[in-house]
Amino acid sequence: MNKLTLITGATDGIGKFTALQLAQDGYSVHILGRDKAKGSKVLETLNKLNPLGNHCLFICDLSKINEVKRFLNSYLKQNNKLDVLILNAGIHPKKLTISEDGIDTTFSVGYISRYLFSAKLNPLLEKSDIKKVIHICGSIVGKISYDKLENPTYSKLKSVWQNSIGSAILVYHWKKLLNTSVTHLHWNPGIVNTQTVKSQSNLIQLLSKYFGMIEPKEAAKKIAAIINSNSNELFYKNGEGYNKIPKKIKSKNELLRLISFSENFTEVYINYKISI
C-alpha cells in the first residue's frame, strides 16, 4: 500500500512542488486548494509522475469553517489512515478582509483551518508509522491579538505572523496535550520564490535573492528530507533544526488561551489528556 499524504495549498508554490516530490517518492498524494483549474493541472502531473499513486484533488475554501468541517468529515469517512499531513495553505493579503465567520481571513486560513485539520485528522495519523504533520510557516514574531481579530487594525505582516505563532504553539504542545504519538513540525523555509515574491517590486525581488531566496523545488526537497528524518527537532528554519524556542510558545497560559479561543470559535473540541 502506498504511503498517503494530504497537502493544503497544493495548487501552486511550495505546496505544488512538495506534492510532485512526494509523488516521485512513491506517495499517494491528496492535494487541496480553491482553484480547480490549477489543481487539475497539478493532478495531471502527479498521475504522470506516479501513475499508480491513486492521487486525488479536493476543492475547499479554507476561510470558511463549515466548509472545512464538511470536507474533514467526508475525508474521515473515505480514508482509514494518513501518513503525512502538510499544512501549507496561507494567504499574504494586499489588504485585510473579514471572513464569513467574522474574523481576519488571513487568520482563518493560516491558523483556524490548521487547528481543524490537526484536531479532526489526528485519529487517521495515529494509525500510521510515519504520523507527521508539517506546518509551513513564517517567522515567530509578536503575539496573537485576539481582541482585534474581528476588526483587524494591525499590519498585513502581523496578520501573517499571527498564523505562525498559533501553529508554533500547537507544534510545541500537541503530543503532551493529546497524549498522542503524532508529531507536529514547524517549518520556516525562509524566502522562497513563490508567486507572492514574484508579485513584489523589483527591489524586493533583488533583496530576496541577496538574502538567500530558494526555489519552491528546493524547498520541497527539504520538506521530503524532514519527513524521512529521525531528528527530534520540532522547529526548522531554512531546512535546519533549532531548539531556541521563545518563552511565549512554551507558555501554558498562551496555550490555554489559544485552545480556548480555537474551541469556542470553531465548536470543535479536543479531549485534553493533561492539565493545561
From TrEMBL:
In its UniProt record, a GO molecular function of this protein is:
oxidoreductase activity
Instruction: Cite the entry's keywords alphabetically.
Output: Oxidoreductase
Domain of life, per lineage: Bacteria
Q: Where exactly are the transmembrane stretches of this chain?
A: none
Family according to the record: Belongs to the short-chain dehydrogenases/reductases (SDR) family.
PANTHER family for this protein: NAD(P)-BINDING ROSSMANN-FOLD SUPERFAMILY PROTEIN, RETINOL DEHYDROGENASE
Protein's name according to its UniProt entry: SDR family NAD(P)-dependent oxidoreductase
What organism does the record attribute this protein to?
Answer: Tenacibaculum aiptasiae
